[in-house]
């Protein structure tokens, strides 16, 4: 099992690495050429700055039983299609039961923005320590579940 992080502007990279290290699970951070990262624990893969280059690279190297951390519903859907686990930086698990509805909501919101001519999104609210703690707990549960299923 490995953990793959869609790491462009991802606020939970530090938490992922800390929890993964505690469980001796390897982590790969993927980012585009505009967000170069460095890490003492994780392998870092820098992908060309194409529109979805990081997403496609991540999906091409993830396998069944791996964990994908991404805020992109499309990446999560492709990970689930490979029988990998997927988790949002909020701690919400993407599942085969909820992904279709999430993708539909994303599509409808995009259509509504286009119709109104408002293409800019209001930024998300500031991340809190409670958000980080919720993600850590949820991520920890996912690792335990994935490791248990592996054995």
TrEMBL record:
InterPro entries named among the record's database cross-references: UPF0178 (IPR003791)
Start-end of Basic residues biased regions: 114-126
Pfam families per UniProt: DUF188 (PF02639)
Transmembrane region(s): none
Region of interest (Disordered), ranges: 114-134
Family: Belongs to the UPF0178 family.
The protein, known as: UPF0178 protein G5B17_16400
Gene source species: Blautia faecis
